[in-house]
Write the structure tokens for this entry.
Amino acid sequence: MARNVLRQGDISAARDRLAAAGCEPGEVRDIDPGKATDLMFVANPAEARTVLQIMADGIDAIVQPLMSREKKLLVADMDSTMITVECIDELADYAGIKAQIAGVTERAMRGELDFAEALRSRVALLKGMEDKVIDLCRAERVRIMPGAKALVRTMAARGAKTVLVSGGFTRFAEPVAQDIGFGRVVANVLEIEDSRLTGTVRLPIVDAQTKRDELENAIAGHGIAREFTMAVGDGANDILMIEGAGLGVAYHAKQKARDAADAEIVHGDLSVLLYAQGIGRKEWVED
């Protein structure tokens, strides 16, 4: 469990809820006092997640097996997960059509529209934009999500493989991946002619199935047992990879992604996923 302040009363309340649900709570072990705590239990994990998710505001609780908690593979979405914005919406702002495009983005992330078709229709509206605007947008608008660098760099330093797979664009994803510390990056390519966007995306489009394929390929290619894998995202196009991972995490996510996930982060930042692996702040790699 993690939030800005974790009180003894919160831990006691969690124990009481677990006991009432027949989960047989046991040892309590601080990861970082006042920030994150392990609360062991031996039965009914699904019920444990249900009762802990209705704890007081500000607490994120992740329920998982103890033996496989430290992951060897992280596959992550980019927009609104590893960075704070949706890049295509911000790019559209430079063309004066952010409201028009952002509405489509929101519906696609909620799973109300076909992702590939929604992407093509939005990119078509950017036809004629100068190529240099992409770099300007990245510099002015893209900000790394709090906790992202600590999460990725710490996992990598401990031997984990890390993959950033985005339905966004390489011109954003490649610099972001390098900045954060990902070992591999996959994203869509905006097509450009004469220094202007053509309004098209190179095929095949990176979509939900691509994200799941990247997870499966990494599992097979590195010989990693599924229970030691984690996928994190926020939208409907992240569901397939969330469902395929040992720990699928919905991060400040749309409802369909939350429903598909094994765990969710509602209050904290991405550093919660280090606490979930039993890694305290003194072990984090942030630089």
